[in-house]
């Protein structure tokens, strides 16, 4: 797995192409933070990834709001200790 030990954040990860990126990154070994305005969609994607044996974290995030993105980054750092992608 090319991304084993790496941590990726996918904004818009709860739907469509973003969700597909989450799955692809997880399959390559990355822990994935599903950053999404739609918190329920983020949870659903993260839960599916975890069910499939991957590490995932749902983070409700409004990328148009600077404070929200800072809180998202801090939460990912607390959970995984790093951000690579």
What does this structure look like?
The protein is α/β, with parallel strands linked by helices and 85 residues long. The protein has 3 helices and 3 strands. The chain has helices spanning 16-27, 39-51, 66-80, and strands spanning 7-11, 31-36, 56-60. It has a 3-stranded parallel sheet, sandwiched between helices. Helix 2 (39-51) links the parallel strand 2 (31-36) and strand 3 (56-60). The radius of gyration is 11 Å and the shape is globular. The mean pLDDT is 98.
Low-confidence stretches: none
First-to-last CA distance: 15 Å
Roughly what percent helix?
40-55%
- Class by alpha and beta content: alpha/beta
The overall strand count is: 3
Give the number of helices: 3
The succession of helices and strands, N to C, reads EHEHEH
Question: Shape from CA axes?
Answer: globular
What is the typical, i.e. mean, pLDDT?
98
Could you give a quick summary of the protein structure above?
Helices cover 47% and strands 19% of the residues. It contains 3 helices and 3 strands.
């Amino acid at each position: 797995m090319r991304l084993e030990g790496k941590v990726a954040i996918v904004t818009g990860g709860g739907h469509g192409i973003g969700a597909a990126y989450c799955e692809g990154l997880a399959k390559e070994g990355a822990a994935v933070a599903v950053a999404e305005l739609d918190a329920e969609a983020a949870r659903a994607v993260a839960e599916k990834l975890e069910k499939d044996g991957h590490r995932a974290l749902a983070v409700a995030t409004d990328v148009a709001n600077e404070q929200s993105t800072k809180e998202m980054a801090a939460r990912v750092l607390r959970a995984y200790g790093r951000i690579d992608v």
